Structures are given as structure tokens and as C-alpha cells.
Amino acid sequence: MDLGFTRYQGIASIVGDIVNLRVGDTQKMQTPPRNRDLAIIEQDGEFFSLAQIIKLSDDLVSLQAFSGTKGLSNAASVRFLGETMQAIYSDNIFGRIFNGSGVPIDNGPSLTHEPKVAINGPTVNPTARVLASRMIRTNVPMIDVFNCLVESQKIPIFSVAGEPFNTFLGRIGVQADADVVIFAGLGLIFDDYHNFKQMFEDAGVMSRTVMYVNLASDPVVERLMVPDLALAVAEKLAVEEGKRVLVLMTDMTAYADAMKEIGIAMEHIPSNRGYMGDLYSQLARRYEKACDFRGAGSVTILSVTTMPGDDVTHPVPDNTGYITEGQFYLHNGVIDPFGSLSRLKQHVIGKQTREDHGQIMNTMIRYYSEGVEAEQKQAMAFDLSEFDHKLLKFSKLFKERFMRLDISMTLELALDACWELLAECFDKDEVIIKQDLKEKYWVEVDGKVSA
């Protein structure tokens, strides 16, 4: 395998998957190494592994071997390619599945000669961005009605192990009204990867979907590449083709754990709970790729962040909360309305949506909150008023009709369903909503529902 680059020998040590190479005076090298550049490791004249430069120190270059270092000897040689990782970019990537090295893994046609785009580019200057003002419909009532997903938003789904967050994320990818969906799987077990692939295929949306997947058994360094590959392609599609791109990433805690693993192998001094001190910067560098480009398309990021032990103060969700614009809290199999927040929803509610949206959203959550309080009073054997019993009915039906993850309906149908539920549980005069909206949207029902 002759690429025309000088071979360098002199491996000083191999620690885990990290190869430390002594190169002497880098200024005299044909291709001086740079951080994040790629290299090829060869043994006995044969290709051994692709690698990435992760540290430069005097005459020592540290490389992360993508395929691991098992069987590698100190007599191996290294060729520096003088370029960073690049993502394949063309019309032929739709419906394809790539690994963390940007190589197709779906047994489809070769894309070797397709154009490529460099990853790890700079983020857009905040002063040059367009203010978020367009909604991405998901047909999930707990999002569309109560916490709208807005174009160019960056927002995580906070959850814990065992919750159906992957199924939920896949549903959003299928139902969202984005032009393109780019999926980034991080440290997935094979079953989860297969389920995502099957969901997209069964729904017939693979033609607008690109998948980048790192399995739990794949090299850790590739896990760090997946978000950058996905976001580089998303940005290119938004800027050059004006596409509304939705990027789905799961699980960002696995991504942070991969950074921690490499940091420990590099003998970096850890910070909070073993994570590196630049955790915030590394996460922000990816999330800030979300942008509404002036005169072009947009990139919206919806990720999953699992909270070990359901601890929101864990370094990953804690740092994520400072970067992102709200969160969806997936708890006990439902989107919890009390823990969820979209900080950009006010940009679209009542502007891009129906006039009653804001009033309905506030009224439904207020009565649900009072219904939860009524449930607590009932559990403690307090006397309940007639209105408390109405709140109990409302709370029960609200959970059944809106909070279940398998419920799918358009925003307009969901708003109508909200009016119907209010009419079933309360008298018209009991509902505190602007009178002109009640006159226009109130729905008379034949009879009140029983508890």
C-alpha cells in the first residue's frame, strides 16, 4: 500500500489503543503532523490501522489507532496523511449507513470517489445567525403542544437507562417534517442499531435519511468522530442546498465517556467524576453547530443524554443544560411536562401556530398540575371538593390521551383534543381561558366522563 508519504519508525510505547511515536524535528518532516490529522499504521509493509493524531508534544506524536493495537509491534511504521477526517458528501449518501470512520457498512455500492467535506470546521458566528422562528412538527403532542421543537434549536432528551428513549427518538426521526434526518448512533448495542434501521425502512423515510453508527464493539475513537461526521454533512446540506436538517444523536453520555477513556489513557488530569476539564467545551463545540443560516436552510439537533442514577447533577447532563435551549425529560415511560422545557417555543406559539395554542398550553398544564396535587390529597385521605374530583378525571385522561409515547396526531388535532378534554371534565364557565377563544373553539359534549 504505497501512498507516497514518508514512513516514520520509532514507536516509543503502546498504551491501550494509543501509539506514541518519536519523529525528531517536525520542521524537517515532509508532512508535519497536526492535531486531529489522520495517519496510517503499517506493519511488515502491510496496512494495519487508520489512526488519528490526538497529541503533539516536542518530538512525540500520540496517535489513537482506530482498529486497536492488538498484535502491533514497536517495529511498525507510520505515514502521516496531512489531512483530517472527511465525510463523503453527495446525493448518493441518502439511505446509506456509515461507521465512525465515514466508511459505508451497509454493503451498498462503493462511494470511494464521491466528493468529501472536512469535519471539525468552525461554528457560525452568533451575530450572523437568523433568530429561530420556524417550528419542526413531530406529531408528538407533548412536544408540539407543550414544548415546541424549533428550527436551529439544540435540545436534549434527558432520561435514564431502561427508558424507551431510543424508540422515541426513532419515532421523531420518522414523523418530523424536516427535509433531511441525519442519525448519529454512539456506542449502540446491535439490537438498538437494528431497531433504528428497521424503523426508518418500515416508515419509508430512508430516502431522506443518512445514518452514522458506532456500535459498542467498535473502536472508541470512532465514537468521537460520529457527531462530527454527521454535523459536517448536515451543515453542508443546510448551507449549499437550503435543507431543513434534523440531526438525531444518541447517547451523548456514551460520547462523553469515550472522551474520558481517551483522556485517562493519555494521562490527562481528570476533573469532576473522572471527566476531563474541557467537557463543556467539547460538548458545546458540537451543539453550537445548530443554526438557522441566513438565506439558506437550518440544522436542528435533538440528542439523548442519559443520566446515571437519574442524577441531573452528573457532569454530562449538568454541562449539557448550560449549552442547550431546554430539555425533554423522559421519565417513567412518558415525557414529563414538569421537567421538560423548550426555551424557544415562544418564537412560534401563536405566530406560526393557531391563536389558541398559548392559552390551551398554559391551561392544560395548570389543570394537570392541580390534578397531581389532588391525587396527593386523595392518597393522604384528605377530603376532596367537587372540583378536585374533576381535576382527578382530567389528570387521568390527560395521561392517557397526551402523555403516552405511542400517541401520534397533528398539532391542530391535538389542540382540538385539548378543547374536547376540557369540555368533558369541566363546565365552560370553570375554564379560565379568554372568552373570545372559548366562544370560537369550545366543544360541547353529550355527557361528562366518569372517573
What does this structure look like?
This protein has 451 residues and is α/β, with parallel strands linked by helices. It has three domains: 7-84, Elongation Factor Tu (Ef-tu), domain 3 (Beta Barrel); 87-123 and 147-287 and 294-334, 3-Layer(aba) Sandwich (Rossmann fold), CATH 3.40.50; 357-441, no CATH class. It has eleven helices and 21 strands. It has helices at 141-144, 165-175, 190-202, 220-241, 252-265, 279-287, 315-323, 357-379, 386-403, 411-425, 435-441; strands spanning 7-9, 11-15, 18-22, 37-43, 46-57, 60-65, 77-84, 86-88, 97-98, 116-118, 135-136, 149-150, 154-159, 180-188, 209-215, 244-250, 291-292, 298-306, 326-331, 334-335, 341-342. The strands form four sheets. Strands 9, 13, 14, 15, 16, 17, 18, 19, 20 and 21 form a ten-stranded mixed sheet that branches. A seven-stranded antiparallel sheet has the order 1-7-4-5-6-3-2, with no helix packed on it. Strand 5 (46-57) and strand 6 form a beta hairpin. Helix 4 crosses helix 5 (252-265) and helix 6 crosses helix 7 (315-323).
How would the blueprint of this fold be written?
Blueprint: E1 7-9, E2 11-15, E3 18-22, E4 37-43, E5 46-57, E6 60-65, E7 77-84, E8 86-88, E9 97-98, E10 116-118, E11 135-136, H1 141-144, E12 149-150, E13 154-159, H2 165-175, E14 180-188, H3 190-202, E15 209-215, H4 220-241, E16 244-250, H5 252-265, H6 279-287, E17 291-292, E18 298-306, H7 315-323, E19 326-331, E20 334-335, E21 341-342, H8 357-379, H9 386-403, H10 411-425, H11 435-441
